[in-house]
Predict the structure of N-acetylneuraminate lyase.
Amino acid sequence: MPTIQHTDGLIAALFTPLHPDGAVHYELLPALVEHLIASGISGIFICGSNGEGPNLTLEERMQVTETVINAGKGRLRMIVHVGHASIAEARKLARHAQEAGADAISSVAAFYFKPTSVQNLADCMTEIASGAPELPFYYYHIPSLTGFSVDVLDFMRIAEKQIRNFAGVKYTASTLWEYQECLNYEGGKYDVLYGFDENHLPALAMGAKGCIGSTFNFAAPFYLKVRQYFEAGEIDKARKQMLFCVEMVRIVVQYAPIPAQKAVMKMLGFDMGPCRLPLEALSDEQYHALHCQLTDIGFFKFLPTGEALPAPLTTLDNS
């Protein structure tokens, strides 16, 4: 049975870069890994929602997984999302992740034919997790995208009994009261990662240590400053820094969130290419408007553009 590791720090939900024709741009992935290391990231979540995992073929997901792990193994914690509408295919991805050297796996609930109960969900996750018995398994709770919601604490009670490699939950929802219950279940035995970027500071107040986020790809230094202030007991400064993060997220989500975030990466020197349909890239007008809005709040004042990799920043008070 794998040891449960309690994550501390930021895990970036990695984008999958694409060529203009929609083919995966594998060659860019090692540079993205180096960028994240330079930004102070602790781990990578591979082929999740932000990485357009459900829009990639099995072969593409496997090659992305191998490329990222080879680029960052031993320097970043590698969690591979293996969720799929087909439980059998998810199990294949789990087995491959283990063979590729991943540190852990995670899966969403099936999102076409959905689970019918908490027990049914646990049975599905048990089947997937059994594909990689040597790796810690995290249930990925994201009802806004799967269209499936469940009492996560009830799931944990069942999962700990029947999923031998159950390690915790990637909790991506705004219901902080339930997150806190899960975090403290069995005295905090399980690793419950928080995944709602704009609730980062409230999650820290609930006891969060490890968090997975999409905006960590380009704004990790801002969140690291929030954590630094919080841990130092400088709560007013933490609130001020967090408000900046919230303003940034509010601007980005005015547009389609994943295409907009890929656009931000391009503004910072990483051309991530388009998205896979049904996601659509921002128009030129939207791209310009997004750039202007981020400029207005001082975003680019602290995050350099161009080819140079941004180093962790130390002065982010935005005063």
Notes: The mean pLDDT is 93. The domain at 9-235 is CATH 3.20.20.70 (TIM Barrel). DSSP finds 13 helices and eight strands in the chain. Strands lie at 9-13, 43-46, 77-81, 104-107, 137-141, 166-171, 191-194, 210-213.
